[in-house]
């Protein structure tokens, strides 16, 4: 069980405010963090990883205190059992694929490195440097590297953002398999509804640094009453380069180009996970 | 025409030793400046950069006062280690270290600051210490900046004149470097010898810079 209650002053689109997140995460769960840009999703991941220092808060991971500002406890990123996949993969350009994955592994973990290389399908590229890899391959290396220390918590910051649909699909399948096989508690920041629907068993929607809604798939299923809803508003958000659809219950965002064909009063099916009620 | 090669070797020795020592001072200092959020960092950066804007005679004058056996520092060095910094090769090295420090620190600091912060953070989340991250991730990825720092320090030390004259004077074999020798020969109206020294310095500097630009183009990560 991961218990967190943290706050940090932060500048949001609407002005300076406190990011304040309070949540309990089941061990082995897969939670998606969704919400508009600047709502604090990445900041929350960075706080969990110890890359940002909160003003106040407490974080207990499987009984171990990682953060307690009252007791002046704040474990460094090195001391926390985490794997972090950055949006840009953050692979080390001077190291080959194998050495990138090996970099964090202890000597006893040589077989683990081979196992991860095999599971992520990276054997053909082990002697190549990151510059020679595609976006999807880089994210697979980043994922393998993040898992090599057998982390308690796997933090994924928009790993699908720069991938085409085929590469995204492959990475999603791989991610789901590794999450299940390795038993990590996984947090995924994503803008893509498909990622969330396929992967997450819980969806936390953030807005202005606060939890706006928090639903598990089971809760969502119970609430699934109406099969479809009319579109009340649809427009293209130039800043985010994505389509935005407002229904009576939901605000949906996607970069899916087929959304351009939708019109006001068209009926669409909305996954209960995205409802704002 | 035969010339005394002493000043040329002395110049290269001074530049070589200065650059070698600066590498060990400059890399940690530049790394700390690039990665630290220390509040007094601007003050330290200002001190390091002072030789860039001050005339060499000003730096030389204050170092001369500091190194003098009658000063606290000069007296202590003489009494404790029997080292005299004024009018000695060791004094030239120490003065050159201070004078060429920004030429080593600035390129490396800029190189490190330009790397994506996610590389450093990724290494930290992989359990790596800041020193291991610096050694295995950050420095190997800013080789051009390291090379620029090394070459600029070397080339700048070769070209020193005012500071050397103030601290070292003109002692053959000890402090008479090539730039001083040129000045000396011109004063004696030996233009041919001055010309030979000048061409040698020009050639060395040109070759060094050519080497840097050539290597920097080829350096791939």
Automatic annotation (TrEMBL), chain A:
SUPFAM superfamilies: P-loop containing nucleoside triphosphate hydrolases
Transmembrane feature ranges: none
One MF term in the entry's GO annotations: ATP hydrolysis activity
Domain named ABC transporter: residues: 2-233
Keywords carried by this UniProt record: ATP-binding, Nucleotide-binding, Transport
Gene3D superfamilies: P-loop containing nucleotide triphosphate hydrolases (3.40.50.300)
Highest taxon above the source species: Bacteria
InterPro entries the record matches: AAA+_ATPase, ABC_SmlMolc_Importer, ABC_transporter-like_ATP-bd, ABC_transporter-like_CS, P-loop_NTPase
Pfam families assigned: ABC_tran
Protein name: ATP-binding cassette domain-containing protein
UniProtKB/TrEMBL annotation, chain B:
UniProt entry keywords in alphabetical sequence: Cell membrane, Membrane, Molybdenum, Transmembrane, Transmembrane helix, Transport
Domain of life from the UniProt record: Bacteria
Protein name as it appears in the record: Molybdenum transport system permease
Broad class of the protein's primary localization: membrane
Subcellular location field: Cell membrane
PROSITE patterns given in the database record: ABC_TM1 (PS50928)
Domain ABC transmembrane type-1, first and last residues per copy: 8-212
GO molecular function, one term: molybdate ion transmembrane transporter activity
Keyword Cytoplasm: no
Pfam families in the cross-refs: BPD_transp_1
Matches recorded under InterPro entries: MetI-like (IPR000515), MetI-like_sf (IPR035906), ModB_ABC (IPR011867)
Family: Belongs to the binding-protein-dependent transport system permease family. CysTW subfamily.
Taxonomic lineage: Bacteria, Pseudomonadati, Bacteroidota, Cytophagia, Cytophagales
Annotated TM spans: 12-35, 47-65, 85-105, 145-167, 194-215
Function: Part of the binding-protein-dependent transport system for molybdenum; probably responsible for the translocation of the substrate across the membrane.
Record's bilayer topology term: Multi-pass membrane protein
Gene Ontology CC: plasma membrane
């Amino acid at each position: 069980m991961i218990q967190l209650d943290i706050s940090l002053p932060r500048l949001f689109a609407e002005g300076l405010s406190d990011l304040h997140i309070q949540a309990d995460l089941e061990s082995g769960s897969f939670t998606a963090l969704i919400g508009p840009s600047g709502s604090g999703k990445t900041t929350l991941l960075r706080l969990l990883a110890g890359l940002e220092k909160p003003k106040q808060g407490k974080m207990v991971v499987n009984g171990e205190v990682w953060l307690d500002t009252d007791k002046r406890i704040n474990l460094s990123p090195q001391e926390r059992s985490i794997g972090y996949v950055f949006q840009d993969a953050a692979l080390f350009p001077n190291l080959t694929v194998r050495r990138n994955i090996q970099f964090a592994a202890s000597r006893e973990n040589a077989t683990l490195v081979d196992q991860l290389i095999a599971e992520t399908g990276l054997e053909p590229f082990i002697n190549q440097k990151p510059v020679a890899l595609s976006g999807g391959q880089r994210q697979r290396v980043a994922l393998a590297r993040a898992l090599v220390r057998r982390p308690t918590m796997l933090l994924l910051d928009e790993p699908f953002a720069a991938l085409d649909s085929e590469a995204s699909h492959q990475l999603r399948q791989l991610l789901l398999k590794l999450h299940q096989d390795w038993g990590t508690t996984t947090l995924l920041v994503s803008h893509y509804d498909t990622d969330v629907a396929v992967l997450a068993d819980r969806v936390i929607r953030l807005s202005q640094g606060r939890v706006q809604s928090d639903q598990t798939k089971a809760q969502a299923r119970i609430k699934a009453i109406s099969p479809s809803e009319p579109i009340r508003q649809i427009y293209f958000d130039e800043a985010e380069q994505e389509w935005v659809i407002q229904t009576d219950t939901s605000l949906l965002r996607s970069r899916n180009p087929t959304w351009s064909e939708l019109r006001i009063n068209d009926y669409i099916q909305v996954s209960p996970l995205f409802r704002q009620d | 025409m035969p010339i005394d090669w002493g000043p040329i070797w002395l110049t290269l020795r001074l530049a070589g030793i200065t650059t070698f020592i600066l590498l060990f001072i400059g890399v940690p200092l530049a790394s700390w400046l690039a990665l630290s959020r220390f509040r007094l960092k601007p003050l330290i950066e200002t001190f390091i950069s002072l030789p860039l804007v001050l005339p060499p005679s000003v730096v030389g004058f204050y170092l001369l006062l500091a190194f003098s056996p009658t000063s606290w520092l000069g007296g202590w060095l003489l009494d404790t280690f029997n080292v005299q910094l004024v009018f000695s090769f060791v004094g030239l090295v120490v003065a050159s270290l201070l004078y060429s420090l920004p030429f080593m620190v600035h390129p490396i600091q800029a190189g490190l600051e330009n790397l994506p912060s996610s590389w450093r953070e990724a290494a930290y989340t992989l359990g790596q210490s800041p020193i291991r991250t610096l050694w295995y991730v950050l420095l190997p990825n800013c080789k051009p900046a390291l090379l620029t720092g090394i070459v600029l320090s070397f080339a700048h030390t070769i070209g020193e004149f005012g500071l050397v004259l103030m601290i070292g004077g003109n002692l053959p074999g000890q402090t008479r470097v090539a730039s001083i020798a040129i000045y000396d020969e011109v004063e004696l109206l030996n233009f041919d010898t001055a010309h030979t020294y000048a061409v040698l310095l020009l050639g060395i500097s040109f070759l060094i810079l050519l080497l840097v630009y050539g290597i920097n183009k080829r350096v791939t990560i």
